[in-house]
Specification:
Distance between the termini: 70 Å
Strand content: 5-15%
Number of helices: 5
Radius of gyration: 19 Å
Order of helices and strands: HEHEHEHEHE
Largest sheet: 5 strands, parallel
Shape: globular
Helix content: 40-55%
Length: 135
């Protein structure tokens, strides 16, 4: 009887793990399937190592003009579907996305992936960016 209880509990744990992996998108590292969420430090490190990438600010134009990360272009999150292909024609170039706090950058990153961009990295908000900001 004790072995049967352990076996049931073990099966329950395995079933729960399989379910969690399925809903969490365990294939997230698969190129092009979803965007990758990284921290600002990792974003900076990756951008320093790349020759070509796009740094995308997903905030409104007014917010961008008040201060942004050097080298960024601005496409507001609610304009990604209309403007991305014209402004970022290469869909295999790494795209690093940020906004103010991280909410709009997630929306923008999801939109980019749905448009077929294969290397999308979302790193939250400019409020967490510990490096240089220009006006």
């Amino acid at each position: 009887m004790y072995k049967r209880m352990i076996k049931r509990r073990l099966l329950s744990i395995v079933a729960a793990l399989v379910f969690l992996l399925a809903v969490s998108g365990c294939g997230a590292e698969e190129k092009g399937s979803v965007y990758m969420n990284i921290n600002p430090e990792k974003a900076k490190e990756m951008m320093e190592d790349l020759e070509e990438f796009v740094l995308l600010d997903a905030r409104a134009e007014e917010e961008f003009s008040e201060g942004h990360i050097p080298g960024a272009i601005v496409i507001p999150h609610d304009e990604i579907e209309e403007r991305a292909e014209a402004e970022i024609p290469e869909k295999d170039v790494p795209v690093f996305v940020y906004c103010r706090s991280g909410r709009r950058s997630k929306i923008a990153a999801e939109a980019l992936v749905s448009l077929g961009y294969s290397e999308v990295y979302e790193f939250g908000g400019i409020i967490d960016w510990p490096y240089e900001i220009e006006q």
